Amino acid sequence: MKSTSREETASTRLTAFQKFSNVAKRVTFGLLMISGFIVIILMGPLMLMLLALAIQVLCFSEILRIGYNSNKIPSSLPYFKRLSWYFLMVANYFFSVETLAPHFQDFHKKFFYLRILIDYHRFISFCIYFGVIVLFVLSLVRKYDLQQFKILAWTHTLLIIIVLQSYMIIDNIFDGLIWVILPSSLVILNDIFAYVFGRLWGRTPLIKLSPKKTWEGFIGGVVGTLISGFILSNVMCGLKYFVCPVGGGLRIDTECTLSYLFTPTTYSNGFFSIEFYPFTYHFLAMALFASIIAPFGGFCASGFKRAFKIKDFGDVIPGHGGIMDRFDCQFLMATFVNVYIFTFVRNPSVDLIFDKILYLDESSQVQFYHMLKDSLQARSLVNFTLVD
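Request: output the structure for the sequence above.
Response:
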């Protein structure tokens, strides 16, 4: 009996030590990742874009490997396995031009051949894409054709879920680093607070897909994210490095004229007055999404891993699993922010509209001129006679 009791005590101590070791490892590498993220932020927009692309490739690789293993693609088809990476390169070419070209108008206008590549890039992308489709058809092997078509569908799903959303992150950068760093920080803060509250007070299970998630952790994450995120957003609003838009040279013009969103406004109702940034309204939308909706990206990832009977997407980050384990919610958050900016924040660019007008033939340009003139005069925005 004493021997059994000693064995149980030793086993309990070992289990407790393992839990402590896992928590310590998770916290240590979590702090290292946050520190590395801060360093990259200080290195500027270009490094943030390269980071987004690196994360994209690593996440693509992790999930593609699961697809190969689950569909039992043999090593005797190395030529076929390369096709998924060809699709990735085509998608990156397409989305990179779509995302970056509008911000480099002055640059590519100076180079004739570059202008042709940009003007016809959709047709070029289409031709390259169907070139890879032809290669896929030629790679089909009768014994494995079903698995090959599954991988084709798997690859295209990844292009939408990972590649498209990674370019939404890059697109957000041009509106100001705050639109990338703050949403990303809100997801991180929510993860930290949910973990702490869940470990300390978690009792009530939240969702069956993630048995360790609790209502206490979920609610604690919401409250902690709102409070800490509000403080962080106010600090960032006061620093031009974060709120000035990124120029075509991928540099931040800290001498920019601030948007009204980042200009302190005083609110008074007769009894008291308070000064705040109008950006606070947008912060609330992002914070609520980060703490209530974005976690479902993690729940979806948990369901995916359970379906394929795997613990993590990879083992790149000790204590955290793979890259996708850390960025499942971040991709969803970036998509929300991109749609939110497009819908509620971003105004049409005069330069982009003018550039589109120049594509019209001469008679259409003159027609546009008369339409604009009549509209301005009808609204009394001009008080002089324009010469026709």
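The chain has a mean pLDDT of 85.
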